[in-house]
Structures are given as structure tokens and as C-alpha cells.
User: Fold this.
Amino acid sequence: MIRILTHVPALLSLVLAGPVCAAGPLAPAGAPADAFPKPDRPVAEIVAPRWSSESARDKAGEFTEVARAMGFAPGETVADIGAGSGYYVVRLSPLVGPGGRVLAEDVTPDYLTALETRVKDLANVTVVRGEPHDPRLPPASVDAAILVHMYHEITQPFGLLYNLAAAMHPGGRVGIVDADDIPSRHGTPPALLRCELTAAGYRETGFHPLKDGAYLAVFSAPATDRRPSPETIRPCRDGATRR
Assistant:
């Protein structure tokens, strides 16, 4: 249905006030954040929409290496969780092709507005407004998801992982790129990552060291009916032991 806007002055005032982010969620809310335990570790602040310059990342071969290890293929639906400036989004678009789909998800309004501008000519990209604990993606719709240099910024990782699993196809793969460092220095030690993903019902299927002290860890998402109940999840300490 097309809505005819009759209040043109009001609309004009909104436009003049600044950019308006039109991105929205693609699915009803999942389990609420307060159903899950808080992580027993620091959570880093979101400080920028990108990890490094795109030219430096291309020179290092980051996307090519990650895409090969993740096995992204034409026709797949790939979700970029915490898409930021869209570095992965614009490279995934031609890779999955016209028969595929890229879901560019983020929670920061300014990033979403910039993303919409950057991908406006990419027909297979959809910008999605999620929540820190819930990407708000359609059930059983995603073949692969990637979280790049942002896992340490997730305020409710168990909620995000629980709700993300519901959006994955059976056996869907989830790749996490992060620095091998403590969360307060914008990284996640691999042992801590494994502990938290295991607590949420995920199974590790691959681990790939990258350049500059980063890594890609690949997991298989649990089926919706095999996710641990939120109240049974136990947080992991910085040393990657369960509390």
C-alpha cells in the first residue's frame, strides 16, 4: 500500500532537521535482554563504524581470506551483524549475486543512515535496524552470518546469540572476526569466545588466524529447539571458565 503524505510542511521540517534513518527490523522481537545473564567481563564501547581503512584491509586481503574460509556462495543470504560502514556489505553483494541477499544489520542510527546511502544502488542489500541483544532478522532465513570486530562491543552476547540462532537456516554458519586481546582493548580472547558461544549452544567448526593479531572463528548455530533455555546459561569469566 502506498501512503500519500498530506502534511508536506511537517515532512519538510523533518528533512531539514537532518537525515532520518528509515531502516527497521525485519522480524518481531525475540527473547528480551533481561532473560539472560550479563557477561562476566568488560564490554567495550562502540567507538567507530570501521576497524581500519578500507584500503589497508584490502591490501591485507581481509575480505578475500574471510570469504574463502566462510564459504560464501552465490545465492546465499548472508547477514553482516554490526555492519558499521558497510565494508563487508558492498563486497558481499556481488559475491552472493542477484539470487542472493545481504542483510546489513546495525544498532547505531548514524551508521544505519550512512549505510542506506552507501547501498542505495545495490538491489540485493537490505539495511536492518536491530537491537543490542536481538538482530531482528526473519526466522530460518540466513545461511551465514558474520560479526566483524564488534563481538567485544555486544552488551548482551547471550541474548544476541540466542536470537541470532533463530534466524539461521539449520546448520547455518556464524563467523566472528576479532582481535586476540581483552575486551577493554577491543578484542576477545579465543578461549573466552569459545566459552560464551558454547554456553549459547554453538559448536566451533573452524579457526583461522588472520593478519595483525586478528582471527576468524567459525561456529555452527544450534537449531531453534536445541538452544539452551536463557535461565540455564552461565556466563564465562575473562579466563574463559564458567561462573
In short: The chain is about 30% helix and 20% strand.
